[in-house]
Structure formats: C-alpha cells, structure tokens
Amino acid sequence: MVRIIDYKTRQKEDGTEFYLLEVQGGIEMVKSKETGLYYATAKKATVSTTFDEETCKSLIGTEMPGRITKIKTPAYQYTIKETGEIISLEHKYVYLPEDVEPEEQEKALELEEAFV
Known about the structure:
By secondary structure, the chain is α+β, with helices and mostly antiparallel strands. 17% of the residues lie in helices and 49% in strands. The protein is built from two helices and eight strands, in the order βββββαβββα. β3 (28-31) and β4 (38-41) form a beta hairpin. 7% of the residues are buried.
C-alpha cells in the first residue's frame, strides 16, 4: 500500500497545467554506508493525473494498493536541495499498481520517452 501525501503542479510545453500526486510507501529501515547505523525512510514517487486541483487536495491521506519500486534509468544529474551538491543518478522511483512487475513498467517508460 502507498499513501497519497501531497500533490504537485506542473506545466506542459503548451503552458497548460496538470497535477501529479505524490505517493509514499511504508517505512523501511536502511543501514547507513557512512556510520553503519540504521535509519527510517520511505520511498516516494509521483503519479500523473487527469484530476483538477481540488480533487488532488481531497485525495491527500488516501491509501492505494501498490508499491514504489526503483528502476534503472540513463544517468542524469540531480541537485540535493539542502546542500546544493550535484550528484549523478541512474535510477528513479516509480509507483506500480498491484500485479505489475517492474520490467513491465520499465518497458512502458522506454516507450513513453521514445515519443517525447
């Protein structure tokens, strides 16, 4: 299960707005590579919608079946907001509904990127 925790506004190339739902998975314990100590975290992802802003607001707190999974992507640069540090990543997190395998999601993303 994932929970809708927020929404984001984005703009298409033609200037029209659309909304993304920000979803978060359950708590996970991860071991720090630097200290060796464990810390709690949760994966987050965004999901495109056809909803208006009011609908997105009303959905915050709703739980949905599915999970957030890590998929491989071409390398890209990412700036850590808190520190300004620029890092290179080769993955992203995506929401998968129940019964969808990561490989199927990766194929869909490859097709989507081919048409952008």
